[in-house]
Design a protein that fits this description.
Blueprint (H helix, E strand, L loop, with lengths): L2 E2 L3 E3 L5 E3 L7 E2 L10 E4 L2 E4 L4 E2 L1 E6 L13 E6 L13 H4 L1 H4 L7 E2 L2 H10 L4 E4 L8 H13 L3 E6 L5 H7 L5 E5 L5 H8 L4 H12 L3 E8 L7 H14 L5 E5 L14 H13 L5 E4 L4 H4 L1 E2 L6 E6 L5 E4 L20
Parallel strand pairs: 9-11, 11-12, 12-13, 13-14, 14-15, 15-16
Antiparallel strand pairs: 1-6, 2-3, 3-4, 5-6, 7-10, 8-9, 17-18, 18-19
Helix pairs in contact: 3-4, 8-9
The structure holds iron/sulfur cluster (SF4).
């Protein structure tokens, strides 16, 4: 299925500029964007995976990870093939890099926006998550689905690397209720060498999405020797804290995969060290991820320090939310920041 990609513009040079993400591809007739799913055909940029879902699951919202967003609920999760990044540590490379590695061949099941919303309702989900690959590359598909979902009383979550243009965020903001954005490192060299992208647009997207009032949680996968120095962890923590100390930060454990099999798993000590640094920098909600660690994956009230959301087991397996429907602490009444209803 293919649909006109309306986040695009024809340039005087005759090329077509894609305005969805900061890769800003300028394409001639017949050319594909870096993501492999947007292509100029008959002078028009087309999204080639509109309505073509490559991965569909019902997941605990905690798995996105979103910890301050409708806890204990399920998110109908959908992704396509294609990605604007080429991370060497990608955990979903089988779909994200599929077109690039298969001569632009596309795979997936036909799933138009109405069907996604209907399935989400059938499965008792409270939100739809655009995830697995980078959702901005299938922007028009996410936009139409998110709009329909809102009409049906469902919320929407973007799980993203944060490469959206301001124009895209402006369009998404009325419909996307939450975003989990990766800050993969705080060095441009890391982004260029390991991800095929740049750091600055990510930081700008985080700031702008926050400014637009979208609930944001940040994730950083800590990779031994690549982005896990005290300084780099502290730099990211400071960036988040300068923006808003109530933004949750998920510090995830790396495991060797895809093109990064020569690096060891993240030791638990690294996660604990990063957790401590984040707290020193004033972040109110810090979590470790990809390991079973109840103490460091549970939520504590920033006012009275009591535990208010228990999380244990594999991500999202056991969650006990003690907050009231508006997110108030049952012990002191402090209203925790997040999307609670
Ligand atoms: S969405 Fe794809 S085509 Fe558009 S700018 Fe990003 S990588 Fe290029």
């Amino acid at each position: 299925m293919s649909e006109a990609a309306w986040l695009s513009k024809r340039l005087e040079s005759g090329k077509v500029l894609c305005q969805a993400c900061a890769q800003s591809c300028k394409l001639d007739e017949g050319e594909y964007g870096i993501c492999g799913v947007r292509k100029v055909e008959n002078g028009e940029l087309r999204l080639l995976v509109y309505g073509l879902a490559a991965a569909v699951n019902v997941d605990p919202v905690e798995k996105k990870p979103m910890f301050h967003f409708l806890p204990q609920s399920r998110a109908f999760s959908v992704g396509t093939v294609g990605c604007n990044f080429a991370c060497k540590f990608c955990q979903n490379a089988d779909i994200s890099q599929y077109p690039q590695e298969h001569d632009h061949h596309l795979v997936g099941q036909e799933l138009p926006p109405e069907r996604i919303v209907a399935l989400a309702e059938e499965h008792g989900c409270r939100a739809i998550a655009y995830t697995y690959n980078e959702p901005i590359v299938f922007f028009e598909y996410t936009y139409d689905t998110a709009k329909l979902a809102h009409e049906r009383g469902l919320k929407n979550i973007y799980v993203t690397s944060g490469y959206e243009t301001k124009k895209a965020i402006d369009l998404l903001a009325p419909y996307i209720d939450g975003m989990n954005i990766d800050i993969k490192a705080f060095s441009n060299a890391f982004y260029e060498e390991i991800c095929g992208a740049k750091l600055k647009p990510v930081l700008e997207a985080v700031k702008y999405a926050h400014e637009k009032g979208i609930w944001i949680e940040i994730t950083t996968l800590l990779i031994p020797g690549k982005n896990d120095s005290d300084k780099e962890i502290r730099d990211i923590a400071r960036f988040i804290a300068d923006l808003d100390t109530s933004i949750p930060w998920h510090l995830s454990a790396f495991h060797p995969t895809y093109k990064m099999t020569d690096v060891e798993r993240t030791p638990v000590t690294t996660l604990r060290r990063a957790y401590k640094i984040a707290q020193e920098e004033g972040l109110m909600y810090v979590y470790v991820g990809n390991i079973d660690d109840e103490d460091h994956t549970s939520t504590y009230c920033p006012s009275c320090q009591e535990r208010v959301i228990d999380r244990s087991g594999h991500i999202g397996q056991y969650v006990r939310n003690m907050l009231d429907v508006e997110g108030h602490c049952p012990h002191c009444g402090y209203q925790l920041e997040g999307v609670w209803n």
